[in-house]
């Protein structure tokens, strides 16, 4: 078996050797020269097919030498069979385990039987006594396995050259022909290939063989055959030829997706075990409790993926498997072929190192594109909004991320609503201050009637001066602080181009540098200006202090004036206090009136921010809609629709939490959720429309409570979003109306039809699915997609590894005595894996029977 399960390797189905009359060799080291030529042309599977002859000793020598170089050679013969206008050259490939068992050469015996009484049988032009069907029957009588590939079918002695349509149609109707003839070699004409399919009623594999007459001709020609097998065996190769659409290729292909190359655990129940997954389909099998899910959970943990359900249980499972201080190591390869190692010690963060063992400050998502994990029960989830969660997991990386911009807009909107709320209370505040001043003015009138105001004018005038200069000082200070907070030194560095070199646009960046340098110069001037303003503010503070000192020095003078007035009926100190209060109030009213002029501007800003927020949300919606269109176009079983701000269930739930205790009924909550698109639209109605719309839906008592909630909690409400509504239809029926099994079927197809993920890990995807769904939809989708992504499944259903043609099968066994989990690795081509599937899995034998039926149904 190959380390990573199945491998795609070059095969040559038509090789001649030195024992063939047509072959020429005059060197000194024939066997090594032959094998080295196979190595040179990267041929790892070959079939020895000499003309009407098989030499066991030569085959054994070549096979032994080739095996040492990881090359597998099968025994065969190019049999010239009497059929059609001339003989038909047929490559007969024998199962060595049966035809050469115990070193008995049954191949030569059957060849001799074909040419009984015929001299010079080894000549390529010498044909058998019997025709094709008789030869097949004679071969079948040996009760040993073999298959037939017709050689150079379009040339002389080729099947399609020598046999006409009627004969081919007649032969193809015979069961023994259909069972044994599974390939054509050297097909070149597309029309002839189509004709052959029409005559026969089915297709066979098209393969290549170099048909060499010398060692130098081994591997010749531009057209090649690559075969996908899980081990070096006759059965593996025979099956690959039967499943030629999935197993035979004209080129080796490249791996275009990232993948996990190996997994190893240090410590715990998997200590020392190393798993080498295939880049395609991997299936973990085993009895319940054997550790399948445990391995997947550890892998999930290493990839830093969170489970959607049963988080506590699944994390405790990881802890149980790894043990204290346990570590999991993943060797991974990205889409560009670069290798990395992901390390994670239990309860520690993920660490990633490159090929040079340098630790990288990146996450797993920077190496493996959107790896996905779905544990048991995840596919049967029915909670509100799960469809959108799933969509985010699948295509979230493809969708533009507007979250940062939305956060900025939300924060700015919050600040402006605060300002608006503050400004909105100004008329009430002005009225309040005006009423106070009316009272003060009435009291001051008494003092004026007694001439007190003129006598204390100097003192009250000094107080007015102090209020004025203090107001100017505070406003100047606020302006300077705003300038100081406008930018930082880091901001200035951010606009500098002094360290930047453009590779292709030097001229543009020279101009840009001149302008950015000017901007930095202006900002530097602004900084100097702020320093000057601060110095000036300090000087103004000194002036204010001198005024305070002067007023202090006049205290005795003021006291003397008060003594001279000598009127016990009035409080002279109160007059000074009233006068000072009146002046201060007048200044505040003037200031508030100035601020009030900005209300319209703030309202316009709030409206603009709400519009910007909606535009950003709509862009996100459009981005998702585009991905959904791709999903819908890629398959026919599922249809996904999306509605902008359509998830009213979540909106209604948010309303109930926000307005709890206000007395709003269930019916009114529903009405509000339908009348408003989201919470911000309610805030817009309240702050910009006077709450006219929402007030019309509520009683006065409830409205008062709601109004109070909005004014106190708007900062929280502005962060709430009404999500887009995602609806998934499966075979034309909404997912919510399907059974659990059908819903799971739809979701797994949804997952598997994505192009964005390098690795998909699913624990028991067949749960709640019937075999018809598994075969008709799940398996067919897996087979279509596994060339483009790595699947790692744990399963109890035999149809998945068998009919899915799993490249790697891992049988887990839990040893209760040692507490260890053992992983036995094989492929669908391995006899050991066959036995494990039949012994352990549900419907194992039936799955293999169905597999055989598929490739014998023609």
Please summarize what this structure is.
This protein is 51% helix and 16% strand.
How would you describe this protein?
With 858 residues, the chain is α/β, with parallel strands linked by helices. The chain folds into four domains: 7-249, TIM Barrel; 259-380 and 757-854, Rossmann fold (3-Layer(aba) Sandwich), CATH 3.40.50.300; 406-597; 601-633 and 652-721, no CATH class. 51% of the residues lie in helices and 16% in strands. Strand 10 (259-266) and strand 11 (274-275) form a beta hairpin. Helix 24 packs across helix 25. The two termini are 30 Å apart.
List its salient traits:
alpha/beta, 9-stranded mixed sheet, 6-stranded antiparallel sheet, 16% strand, TIM Barrel, 33 helices, 858 residues
Query: What is the rounded Rg?
Result: 43 Å
**Can you tell me the overall shape?**
elongated
Per CATH, which architecture of the largest domain? Alpha-Beta Barrel
- Count of separate structural domains: 4
Give the full name of the CATH homologous superfamily of the largest domain.
Answer: Metal-dependent hydrolases
Top CATH class of the largest domain: Alpha Beta
Lateral arrangement of strands in the main beta sheet: 7-6-5-4-3-2-1-8-9
Number of helical runs? 33
Helix content: 40-55%
- CATH topology term of the largest domain: TIM Barrel
* Overall SS class: alpha/beta
Main sheet properties: 9 strands, mixed
> End-to-end distance, in Å?
30 Å
Low-confidence stretches: none
